[in-house]
Amino acid sequence: MQLGAGSQPAGGAVAIGENSKAIARSSVVIGSNSTATINGATTTTGVATNLGASVVIGANNYSNGNNNVAIGNRSYTNGNAALAIGRESSATSDFALSLGTVSAATGIKSTSIGHSSVSSGNNSIAIGSSQGAGRDWSNNGTTSSGSNSIAVGTSAKANAADTIVIGQAANASTLATNAMVIGKDAQAIGQNNISFGVGAKTGNVVSSVTDALPLAGGSQIAIGTGAVTDTAGSIAIGYNALTGLNNNFGLALGGYAQATGNSAVSIGRRSESTGQNSTAVGGRETKATAGGATAVGSNVQATGFESLAIGAGKGDGTSVTSTISSGKQSVSVGANSKATNTSAVAVGTNANSTGENAIAIGTGSQATAKDTISIGTGNVVTGQGSGAIGDPTTINGTGTYSVGNNNGTIDALNSGAFGNDNTITGALNSVRIVGNKNTVTANSVSVMGNNSTVSGTSGISIGNQNIVSGQSAIAIGEIAQSKGLQSFAAGYDASASGQDGLALGSATDASGLSSTAVGRAAWALTDYATALGAETTADALNATAIGSFAKATKENSVALGASSTTATDATQQTSATINGLTYGTFAGQVTDPGMQISVGSVGAERQIKNVGSGEISATSTDAINGSQLYATNAVLGNISNSIETTLGGNATLNSDGSISMTDIGGTGQNTIHNAILASRTEV
Its domain of life (predicted)? Predict the structure, then answer.
């Protein structure tokens, strides 16, 4: 069928319009200067060719091939089953579809929809229009040049195989195989990358305006407005999220999150991980800036190598003070906690560890010197090598420890307080306390117990409510007191107030110099006195009382035995007169009334048993036992018996040792003298 001047239809073809040509069989040409031709045929105007059955509608169109459709002004098809609709549209490969003004589908089975859109890759799809005017498809229009690629959006470009690009001016570079780009101005430069969001970028973004090779830039994901990834394995998700320039395997999740260190992880709004293998998790500018550093929480900073910071700022809504871990391998956990030195540890709200190897655990705890430990609420440790465990205690001394609560401020060196409410006054040295509410004001002191006070240097208190005021003194028990130099008191309410005094037993009292009191309520009240036994009393210089209730009350006296006393005076004995006979002079004269040993008391005398035989001489002061007296009396008895025998007659030895006789020699006289006189008279 032919209609129009100069039209040329082939067999079974239709040509309608001025100079229209339907050269291919069964083709339809409608429009002036349009052509549908058989492959290899030539025409002088627009073309639509191949083996036939093509449709060309519009002025100056051209179709070359089988089953093609070209509709519009200057549209162009070349291939089999190609479709071009729109002014200056073209579909130049088999099964290509081009729909839109100046659109082009040049790849096999490609689809191009929109003004100036281009689908040049096989099986590619380009949907969208250009941002500018003219026919510069590569720069202005939507383009899908990679095989199996998809580009959707004004000036979107899918330039690599198997890419998906959706969004105005979104771009997948020629190196971005298998990439996915979604969002206005989003970019993907490396293979397997994902860019999702307005301005999201993956790949070597510094060189993103060209197709330079990204630095190992594959397998990246950028999701969110302004999200950017730069190197292999990186992921950026969130508004303006960024993974590190020239660093691999970064992960940034959150608005303004930045993971710019190699293998860094940043999760949370404005979080930053700039160190290699660093991790930042949280918001309000949480930062991990050193290698291996980890920061977790709101407004947290881990700036030391391999440091750990977990917590937040003060949380009052206005403070920018943050949890900080700036020391190498330091750890900071808790709101506003800080670990600022090598291997420092701070755990708890407002905890502060500034010393090397220091540990601060608890709300407001502080460890500010090297090798210090502060564990508990409000503890402060400033002395090197010192520690505090418990509630508020301040340690300023070096090498000093406190374990317990409310031990105040300790300035002492090389000391320790273990318990509660203890007080160590001043810059002392070598103090040890175990117990509660004790007070120490002297050096080199040891306390074990409660409510005791030690003010003497090198003093020791063991027990409760003791008082040690003497230097090198010791008190053991309860309410025990050692007030004398080098004194010792042990027992309930024992007291040693004299220098070198010794009090052992409840209620004992050794108040004299070098006095000794041993036993319940034993009292040695004067210098060098000794009281041994329950309720004994030695109350004179050098007095000694031994035995329960014994009392030695004279100087140098000895009360030996229970209830013994020294109530009477010792006397000087130089001789003795018995029945007119004087014996003496005796050796060993006493010089003082107290020079005595009493083994009893008036009405409660006792024998001395098992006394060894003493020396019998003019100078001996030994005690004489019963056997010695017996031997002496035996001799005297023999003498008396001998005299009785010698006298004869009725001479009699009386029991008191005297001899009596009468009528001596039959003289009637009772004395030898008178008997002799009487015998002379008779002669």
Answer: Bacteria
- Stated as kind and residue range, the H or E segment containing 541 is none
SS3 for 248-282 is CCCEEECCCCEECCCCCEEECCCCEECCCCCEEEC
> What would the two tokens of residue 430 be?
């070598």
Nearest CA to 319 out of 280, 362, 350 is that of 350
Cβ–Cβ under 8 Å, residues 99 and 78: no
Q: Are strands 488-490 and 338-339 parallel, antiparallel or unpaired?
A: unpaired
At residue 215, the pLDDT reads 42
CA atoms within 13 A on the CB side of 195: 44
Distance (Å, rounded) from C-alpha 168 to C-alpha 132? 12
In eight-state DSSP terms, residue 228 is B
Query: Tell me: the pLDDT tens digits for 214-243?
Result: 444 566 777 877 878 777 777 888 888 888
| CB-based contacts of 633, cutoff 8 Å, min separation 6 | none
Using CA atoms, how far apart are residues 281 and 297, in angstroms rounded to an integer? 6
Q: How far is CA 547 from CA 551, 598, 599, in A?
A: 9, 12, 10
Report pLDDT for 409.
Answer: 96
pLDDT digits (tens, 9 = 90+) for 152-183: 888 888 888 998 888 888 888 888 888 888 88
CA distances from 381 to 183, 378, 408, 427 (A): 56, 10, 12, 15
User: CA-to-CA distance for 170 and 152, rounded, in angstroms?
Assistant: 9
Rounded CA separation 542/515 (Å)? 9
Q: Quote the longest CA-to-CA distance of the chain.
A: 233
- Please calculate the CA angle 372-378-380 and round it to the nearest 5 degrees: 30
Residue at 428: amino acid letter: L
CA angle 92, 95, 98 (to 5 degrees): 55
646 CB-near residues (< 8 Å, 6+ apart) = none
Question: Coil, strand, or helix at residue 139?
Answer: helix
Question: Which residues face 502 on adjacent strands?
Answer: 488, 516
Output the six-digit token pair for 413: 């060196």
**Cα 650 to Cα 54, 645, 659, 677, distances in angstroms:** 195, 10, 10, 19
